[in-house]
Design brief:
The complex is a heterodimer of chains A (750) and B (288). Chain A contains 21 helices and 26 strands. Chain A is of the alpha+beta class and 750 residues long. In chain A, strand 13 (302-310) and strand 14 (316-328) form a beta hairpin. Chain B is an alpha+beta fold. Chain B has a 5-stranded antiparallel β-sheet with strand order 4-5-10-6-7. Chain B has a 4-stranded antiparallel β-sheet with strand order 11-12-13-14, with helices on both faces.
């Protein structure tokens, strides 16, 4: 496999959707309009925790222009029968889309209005009378797990290994992974470091707010236009929440202005469907930025305690990691994934990983790029750094001494096949940024990261045009340049240029079932289906050539986009190129089309090592990132520019999470910074050019060796920045964000 | 869409007459604060009085012993003005900190003053250089010192029917220079957590003969600090004097705890910025 000489894979063609995007012609979620379309507005809870005593929607209907009003009681009572396992818990999802009996966070949707103008819809929403019985908010892990905590869900019973609470609780699940003898491990250690870390809730921060347009027909058919990472997920989830048959719903994904996991679920779609059904008119719903912050995303706040023991020679021996992740209003924090990732980069003979999923009266968390892993790595990678410091070892050297490699077993079970972790460490050590001279008040940090990547289900179809060009259709919205990568894969197999392939994002009726664009799975899993379908096309092209030449199939080989005679057959004929065969499709057997489907159970994990140099202003506590380097194993980079883009984007988000991003809640559970002014994501001038080094250790599960690359790069930065700040200041920062007030307080010893 | 009556007078007197007849009308210049506030439901003006077509409110001019900046002059026009950059670099750099490149083509100096945010970047810089607001009303013009213009968050000394026409800055004397610094957790597109502006004059022997120190974002309005100025006057702007400037600024600050910063942090850092701005101003003055 690794010997294969690629012609297209590894090149950097211009992306097929580039022109529309840079000229503003591409249609995003809010860009669709239909004749007679109504505008919708959502009424949201003013309380973080309250019972809904009554809702009177009738005053809204008296507002001129209002055509439909709905509340949670207009939806079927959600049951677990509608659960489609791959989408999570349907009742919780339904209750998050619109509250029925209880509101569980400030901003929770309570009712929705459709009207001829957005102003009329907003006036209508203001007229709705809701009587609440206000309950105490539950705003952090400590108060959520306290014995006298207000309980969010009366029917919530903790799942997982004992001991766990048996009466209703705010702890939804315990995840426990262990191996060896932890006490013995610490006893055998020469040095033991133990620290507790916290991270706040942070948002994915995608530029495009959620938006949808829904049209319903008299026969019950529903068409949904929306920005999503998974049109099939939107279809399945909307069917479950609305009670409409799945086959009556068609979802057409728009272009997507970022998602990072946050657009893998639904918020507005069932509301727009119900408003459209009631009004008989198309309905558009678009969130404001404030609604995005209050009612979508974020990822968990976390509390992580790490205890790690090592021998004097630098060998890591034992680790105990206890993690509490906030799920927000409904169970489902990524603490399980955090447990899977926490210690998976190193060999520990003795380990315990103990994770708790805790509900609080805050927005329900959604997936965010390597969900759960950065929070765990923030703790683990700082403790690894401190162990190296205590032992007087270079932090890369310590990691190389303990890095997992092929045939090692991950704490969550699987045995690693070929992986490139050590290679990322070695490349990082060789990089000029690792030996660049540091000035006063400057420090260098190192951190690594692991993400398991997903496989799931994918399909693809490839069609030949009469002129020898091809069309590839998949059900994966293009969130990170996947169209270009998909065209490259077809071009590689067919022996043509990537520009001769049209990559299409299909809708739920024109593409075969495909799981969402997420889990770093598109280039990997959907790529496998594309390659398989393309190989089928090549076989058919050879068949047509064989027919034209009157030889058997094995008398035709496919080389450089041409059928050539092989095995001594028809040696007197001229090779046939793709265009010549395609032009004769009608006479040789009809259209040439192929499709393929895959459901790989595993994906081949990703590893990265990052380097960060910072300068700390000792008088203001402000941290400036001077250099940032990402080294990652991509298996095989199909379109290296988009692999580098993922590495840089993940690093940028992780640096923001490390330095300034956080949800700030007041004592009532109201987010005080629901906008980009005070939710401080980095701006371009905050970051240096992020250097990238792609390592390629082929993934044996993929025909080209591809590994998912989208998520791994957000895993190391939190700890990498913290390690750099520790080096610059001599102070360990265990709480995020490492914002100027926090840094200055530490420097001044406050 | 919301419908708000819009008028674009061509003269100061016409604008003043319109403002005088409607207490709920709002002056619209760049609109970079106002439109956001209206969209957010914070303000509901009865009418827009667009002042961008009044020649008296546009442009930067240096005449005699003063610099005049029209209230509706966009930030970019101000900080790109070579003579203004040379004469009052602190005012230029404060103006250059407003918003993003796109916003700077639209946001005006007058708007920054009239929005009366305690964190407005131009305010401490203008106070430091002794700027005056030229205000027109039905009875004619009057001048208000910039330090007296904002009276509280979102509140100004403008009476109903009055319009901010321009800002007048005395042309700096020989060996006089200014500087403005702010702290934000990012590098741009943020609101000052703390700001400090300093203008000072050096004698031939390097002794400071005059100084004005102003701080922002640490009280309901920007503050002019007599004591910090006194720490500089008579000194050679040495470490000892700078330490006293810092202490005076920290002592004068009356900040709040909010999502942008804590009381303790703001008090400390306002001193740091005041002393750093003083050092920059002194270096600039030295070179003149």
């Amino acid at each position: 496999m690794s010997e294969r000489k690629f012609k297209q894979v590894g090149t950097r063609p211009i992306r097929h959707d580039g022109l529309e995007k840079v000229t503003g012609r591409a249609n995003f979620g809010a860009d669709y309009s239909l004749p007679g379309m109504l505008q919708g507005a959502v009424l949201r809870s003013p309380h973080a925790h309250a019972k809904i005593v009554s809702i009177d929607t009738s005053p809204a209907l008296e507002v001129e222009g209002v055509k439909a009003v709905i509340s949670g009681r207009d939806f079927p009572i959600p049951t677990r029968e509608g659960d489609r396992q791959q989408y999570g818990d349907v009742p919780d999802l339904a209750n998050n889309v619109i509250a029925r009996d209880k509101v569980l966070y400030h901003g929770h949707a309570v009712a929705a209005v459709a009207a001829t103008t957005i102003e009329a819809a907003q006036r209508g929403a203001e007229k709705i009378r809701v009587e609440y019985e206000v309950l105490p908010p539950v705003l952090d892990i400590e108060s959520a797990i306290a014995p006298d905590a207000a309980i969010l869900h009366d029917d919530l019973v903790c799942q997982g290994p004992a001991p766990v609470p048996s009466s209703p609780t705010n702890v939804a699940r315990r995840t426990l992974l262990s191996g060896g003898d932890i006490e013995q491990g610490f006893a055998d250690s020469d040095v033991v470091v133990e620290r507790e870390f916290t991270t706040p809730m942070v948002h994915q921060g995608y530029i495009e707010p959620h938006a949808t347009v829904v049209e319903t027909l008299e026969n019950g058919n529903v068409t949904i236009w929306c920005c999503t990472q998974g049109p099939f997920a939107v279809r399945g989830l909307t069917a479950s929440v609305t009670g409409i048959e799945l086959s009556k719903i068609k979802v057409i994904p728009s272009e997507i202005g970022g998602g990072f996991g946050g657009k893998t679920t639904i918020y507005l779609e069932p509301l727009a469907v119900e408003l459209s059904r009631r009004s008989g008119r198309p309905v558009k719903l678009v969130m404001s930025r404030e609604e995005v912050f209050r009612a979508t995303g974020p990822t968990s706040a976390g509390r992580v305690r790490v205890k790690m023991g090592a021998r004097k020679d630098g060998r890591l021996v034992a680790a105990e990691v206890v993690m509490y992740y906030e799920a927000g209003a409904f169970p489902g924090s990524p603490v399980g994934a955090g447990c899977m990732c926490a210690l998976s980069a190193y060999c520990f003979d003795h380990f315990v990983i103990d994770g708790y999923d805790v509900v609080t009266t805050k927005p329900r968390v959604a997936a965010y790029r390597a969900p759960g892993a950065p929070i765990a790595a923030f703790g683990v990678e700082q403790v690894v750094d401190e162990v190296a410091e205590r032992l007087g070892l270079d932090p890369i050297e310590l990691r190389l001494l303990n890095a997992v490699q092929e045939n090692d077993v991950a704490p969550y079970g699987p045995k690693y096949q070929a992986i490139g972790f050590r290679e990322t460490l070695e490349e990082a050590r060789k990089h000029p940024n690792y030996s660049a001279t540091l000035g006063p008040n400057q420090g260098r940090g190192v951190a690594s990261g692991f993400w398991f990547n997903a496989g799931l289900q994918s399909s693809a179809s490839v069609h030949m045009n009469e002129d020898g060009t091809a069309i590839v259709t998949t059900g994966n919205p293009d969130i990170g340049g996947s169209r270009a990568a998909q065209a490259i894969m077809v071009a590689e197999e067919l022996g043509i240029g990537a520009e001769q392939v049209v990559p299409l994002v299909g809708d739920t009726e024109s593409a075969g079932y495909t799981d969402l664009t997420g889990g770093s799975r598109t280039a990997y899993a959907t790529g496998m289906a594309i390659i398989e379908a393309s190989q089928d096309i090549v076989r058919q092209l050879r068949e047509r050539a064989a027919k034209i030449w009157g030889v058997e199939l094995d008398g035709v080989a496919w080389e450089d986009g041409r059928a050539v005679p092989s095995n001594g057959a028809a040696s007197d004929v001229e090779p046939l190129n793709l265009a010549e065969i395609a032009a004769q499709m009608g006479a040789t057997g009809g259209p040439i089309v192929a499709q393929a489907a895959v459901s790989p159970p595993m994906a081949g994990p990703g590893f990265a090592t990052h380097l960060c140099d910072v300068e700390v202003d000792q008088e203001t506590g402000k941290v400036t990132v001077l250099r940032y380097t990402t080294v990652q194993d991509a298996g095989k980079a199909v379109h290296p520019s988009y692999v580098e883009g993922q590495m840089q984007g993940g690093a940028a988000q992780g640096i923001g999470w490390a330095l300034n991003e956080e949800y700030i809640f007041d004592e009532n559970g109201v987010v005080e910074n629901p906008g980009f002014l005070d939710y401080r994501m980095p701006v371009a001038s905050d970051l240096p050019m992020i250097d990238t080094v792609i390592v390629e250790v082929a993934n044996p599960l993929h025909p080209y060796g591809v590994r998912g690359v989208g998520e791994t790069p957000i895993v190391p930065p939190l700890a990498c920045v913290a390690n750099a700040v520790a080096a610059a200041t001599g102070k360990r920062f265990t709480d995020l964000p490492i914002s100027p007030p926090r840094v200055l307080a530490a420097i001044d010893g406050d | 869409m919301q419908s708000i009556p819009y008028q674009a007078p061509a003269s100061v007197s016409e604008a003043v007459a319109l403002l005088g007849s409607d207490a709920e009308a709002r002056v619209l210049a760049g609109g970079t604060d106002l439109l956001v506030q209206v969209r957010g439901g914070v303000r509901k003006p009865s009418a827009w009085i667009d002042v961008k077509r009044i020649p008296d409110l546009l442009g930067v001019s240096v005449e005699g012993d003063s610099i005049r900046i029209g209230a509706a002059t966009p930030a970019a026009v101000i900080f790109e003005h070579p003579e203004l950059q040379r004469l009052v670099p602190g005012v230029a750099e404060a103006t250059d900190l407003i918003g993003s490149t796109q916003i700077q083509g639209r946001a005006t100096l007058g708007g920054n003053l009239c929005n009366a945010s305690p964190a407005a970047d131009t305010t401490p810089a203008l106070i430091a250089v002794g700027a005056q607001c030229i205000v027109a009303g039905s009875g004619g013009e009057r001048e208000i010192a910039v330090e007296a213009f904002a009276t509280g968050p979102g509140q100004t000394a403008l009476a109903q029917g009055e319009l901010l026409v321009a800002v007048r800055i005395p042309k700096p004397a020989a060996r006089t220079a200014d500087a403005y610094l702010r702290l934000i957790p990012r590098t741009e597109m943020d609101i000052a957590v703390v700001g400090a502006g300093v203008a000072l004059t050096l004698g031939d022997d390097g002794t400071c003969t005059q100084a004005r120190v102003a701080i922002g974002a640490v009280a309901p309005t920007a503050l002019l600090l007599e004591e910090a100025a006194a720490a500089l006057v008579g000194s050679r702007v040495d470490d000892d004097a700078l330490a006293r400037v810092a202490a005076a600024a920290t002592a004068a600050a009356r900040p709040i705890d909010d999502k942008r910063g804590t009381i303790a942090y703001r008090r400390k850092v306002v001193g740091v910025l005041a002393k750093r701005a003083a050092a920059i101003a002194a270096n600039r003055a030295q070179e003149r």
